[in-house]
Amino acid sequence: MQFLQKLGFFCIHASVLLLLVSPLVSSSQEHTKGASSRKDNNIHEQMSHKLLFEITLHGFLLSASMGFLMPLGILAIRMSHREECGRRLRILFYVHGLSELFSVLLATAGAVMSFRNFNNSFNNKHQRVGVGLYGLIWLQALIGFVRPQRGSKGRSVWFSVHWILGTAVSLLGILNIYTGLQAYHEKTSKGIKLWTIIFTAEFCFIAFFYLFQDKWVYIRKQGVILGSEPVRPTIDQVVLPPEKQKELLTESC
């Protein structure tokens, strides 16, 4: 009988002790789970910030490459067509070469970032166009390095291929900037209206300036009265020795 009483008292004390301890244990477990979930959220938030920075840097590199440096090189070589020889022609040629070289380097850095850090499932237009664009950029650079001399047989073919490929790369690059802005908006839910307006205004100015090069000489001549402009004799009108004519024909700027 005493044993049963002692067993009953022990059960009662044990129950009371469990009732007192269980809230403390549960609160400790909840605190641990809350700390763990907050830690996971912090890690996820840090990864999101890192990914957002990488996406922004990728967009900056490609927009600087395809949206500024490459059109600058095209404008420089376009302006050189009005120059025959001299220091100005060399400066425009070097501006063209250096701007296109830096454009290729920035595009390559952006391509490396996209292949290493992004999900390259190629399920959207921006990624598919971008892969083809990377290949065309490097092909255009290699064609530029194997430029034949003026007067050679393959010069006209090289010029046609270089011009067509450069035009295609420029148009695809501009198109991919807009598709990249749309992909950025879908990925981050951030507004892209301001950047779209800025790039559109820039491309319209570049296109206007590019087309304006052909009309500038014609516009300047509109103010010249016919007959007042001195007539300069051409090479065909000047009688030169055969050796001198051969030198003029083979000489290039």
TrEMBL record:
It is a multi-pass membrane protein. It is found in: Membrane. One of its GO terms (cellular component) is membrane. Residues 1-27 form the signal peptide. Residues 13-220 form the Cytochrome b561 domain. The chain crosses the membrane at residues 51-79, 91-115, 127-146, 158-180, 192-212. Its main location: membrane. Keywords: Electron transport, Heme, Iron, Membrane, Metal-binding, Signal, Transmembrane, Transmembrane helix, Transport. InterPro entries: CYB561D1/2 (IPR045150), Cyt_b561/ferric_Rdtase_TM (IPR006593). This is PREDICTED: cytochrome b561. Pfam families: Cytochrom_B561. Its cofactor is heme b. It comes from Prunus dulcis. The keyword Manganese does not apply. One of its GO terms (molecular function) is transmembrane monodehydroascorbate reductase activity. It comes from the Eukaryota.
